[in-house]
Amino acid sequence: MSNGDLWVFGYGSLMWNPGFDHDEALVATLPDYHRSFCMRSIHHRGTEDHPGLVLALDELTGAHCQGLAFRARPGTYDQTMADLRERELVSSAYLEKRLMIDLRDGRQVEAVTYVIDPDHVQYCQIELDEQAQIISTAVGGRGPNTEYLYNTASHLTELGIEDDDLSWLSRQVRTLTGA
């Protein structure tokens, strides 16, 4: 960790529901990964019988993902990591990595980051139209898949982060659901 700090990179629900105490939250960029609905959700936003989709970081040379970096409050590191692992590693579809990110203020720090395991059974690559169909009907232990999409898209907008795919999906799912 940079200067002994624990940084965590959020690109989906961690942005609007980090679930841990933090002293700093800054827009940050992770190189060589992109955010996409490439993980079937069988726990939080879907079920085994009706999987939903959640965002994951898919490795792609030359890509980048903007999200929110959180600096955990000192003294909470062990609990923060335990809570993150319980939340993010529920099905082993994510890999926990420590990757360098660029903070908007110019600093570069190492951050705990959860990326998709492309060899995991929950990994998928689905066209946007089909993603919209799945997201519009799936519900899991943490609620409707639509809520996850809408919260993430709105928080990206609030942060001034453009994600054309999420904006399109949000509009399309609202059309499909009549919202």
From TrEMBL:
EC numbers, comma separated: 4.3.2.7
Class in the EC hierarchy, top level: lyase
Keywords: Lyase
Gene Ontology CC terms: cytoplasm
Superkingdom classification of source: Bacteria
MF GO annotations: glutathione specific gamma-glutamylcyclotransferase activity
InterPro entries with a match to the protein in the record: ChaC, GGCT-like, GGCT-like_sf
A Pfam family matched in the record: ChaC
Keyword Lyase part of the UniProt annotation: yes
GO biological process: glutathione catabolic process
Record-given protein name: glutathione-specific gamma-glutamylcyclotransferase
